[in-house]
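Practice set, problem 2.
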Amino acid sequence: MNKTILVTGAKGQLGRSIQALEKDDSLFTFIYVDIDEFNLCNAAMVDTFFEKKHIDIIINCAAYTAVDKAELEPKLADAINHLAVKQLATIAKQKNIFLIHISTDYVFNGHHFQPYLETDAVDPQSVYGMTKLRGEQVFQKIAPKGIIIRTSWVYSEFGHNFVKTMLRLGKEKERLGVVFDQIGSPTYAGDLAKVILDIIQSNAIQSLPISTPIYHYSNEGVCSWYDFTQHLFAMNQITCQVTPIETKDYPTAAQRPFYSVMNKAKIKLHFKCTPPYWQDSLALCLRNLQE
């Protein structure tokens, strides 16, 4: 039976990565929406959309992700990352829609120093992290059928991200200072998109607990932003000199987690997925950028 899948935030990195992987498949019909036709801050528009469309699965890729700007726009960040999730979760429960919601490592305070489990205590240190946590909490309170996937350090060949910014700066500048005391696992959006598409086709979603389960997903391996940049430049023969600097020497409006490596054992076990190593995925992204 053909199922209709709604992908919100279709112009973002993950939304565009899902589109790039989508194949002609009699099992699924995809509908991609972004702010023009599906403004998550406009509750009436969202309600009207679901009155006119039959949806079986929602993949909520939409989010307010401008981490520093969120410190200046907390109400807007909350409207998108929390209140809109509340509305989607309520609709999903009323209409028996399976909802996949994407969250972030920023729900943690970054002082754990061993890979975070899904059950570890949350303690966001920024407006962005707090609003994303509120989205998780309201999702779990309403408890539609669905899952939450936390991810980290997302990049792709699409939109604005660390990889594309550093490639540009590396060609423009002779030297760059890059933070070395923030540790995490990069996530290629194409890999996350593939996992999501595999999940919606998996029989495992039929055996999920009633309470909304949370899963962690990133690429395998661990690095700092400095390590990430050094490897990126080496792969592209960029001669810009990279200097390691401390977070205190690169002040930002929002506090970043010092350590945001996440334990992925749960998603690997339940959905039988094998996240690629971050360096292999970066190489794939760079090949796609060159095409």
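Problem 2, part (b): a different protein.
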Amino acid sequence: MIRDFAEGFRFGLSGLGHLLQPGLRAFVFIPLLLNTAVFAAGTWWLFGFLGRTQQMVDDWLPDWLDWMAWLLWPLAAAALLIVIWSTFTMIANLIGSPFNGLLAERVQRAARPDVSIPDLSLGAELIRAPLAELAKLGYFLLLAIPVVLIALLPVINVMAPVVWAAYGSWLLAVEYCDYPLSNMGVRLSEQRRLLRGDRWLALGFGAGVMTMTVIPGLNLVAMPSAVIGAGNLWAARLSGPGRNV
């Protein structure tokens, strides 16, 4: 369990060392610009929102419960950061998805030259990829329902940050592993089954990607790096005999 999680985490960060690799740079540049624009706008909005929310909570609590703000606010802020950063990531991925599929294809061809990778075209990806992102978004929203309920229920809501972290890690694993797996014709439902078979590996990968998304500077290259990492993960653990991918 721990070994799989650690290996997945390493794959989640592995793309950082390949961003400037010849043959990949052209597909990294455009997603990098998109990520920069989304996260710059999102960060400006996020800090304003957190400030207003904290003030609202402070005004709502009676004076004799002021001490609770010191307990509740860090937990709520951690959960909120995970949710909002994940949302920013989804927006950037929706815009950059056609390029992400092509980037994953390049990584797959380089990592597994023995495997036949279907040819992709930018024109086809401009149609297919955004539709695939919307399908994933629907799945993520349904999965968020029980997570939100846990966050709202008294007593068990102290587990909310942990649950949100697990949800965010799974979300990012499904999001980025979709690119190499979709290139091989694997449907979203089958992708989820495949990742559940290596649950801790997938959660570790998502945690590694999440780490990049919350570190200023690294979050700008998180999207192309995660796509490359997902391609590496596919080549090492999600392809081969018995996988049919």
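Answer key, part (b): The radius of gyration is 19 Å. The chain has one domain: 2-238.
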